[in-house]
Amino acid sequence: MATSIQGRSCRICNVVLAEMDNYNPSVYTERVNEAIQILRGEVMPNFAHKVESAVDILSLPSSVTDKVDENDFIDASRLVYNGVRDIRNSRRM
């Protein structure tokens, strides 16, 4: 699951970066590039770590699976959504 989401996020970043190559450097392109760097450098590694931790815990015996923090996982997923939305919003401006 995490690989699929990471792949799609990477594809979004690559497509938008390729499109930014058609523009002259400006505040606009800097804002878009910054949003991409945040998604790639901070959000996706955090998401991958949370998914990996949850999968590791869920693969253990059932008595240990109560340690999965659903809210933590939901927050990591929300950060991915917000990161993609930030790229979209900065792209539209």
Automatic annotation (TrEMBL):
Main location (coarse class): cytoplasm
Keywords: Cytoplasm
Subcellular location: Cytoplasm
Molecular-function annotations in GO: actin filament binding; beta-catenin binding
GO cellular component: adherens junction; catenin complex; cytoplasm
A GO biological-process term: cell migration
SUPFAM superfamilies named among the record's database cross-references: alpha-catenin/vinculin-like
Family per record: Belongs to the vinculin/alpha-catenin family.
UniProt name for this protein: Catenin alphalike [Acyrthosiphon pisum]
Organism of origin: Lepeophtheirus salmonis
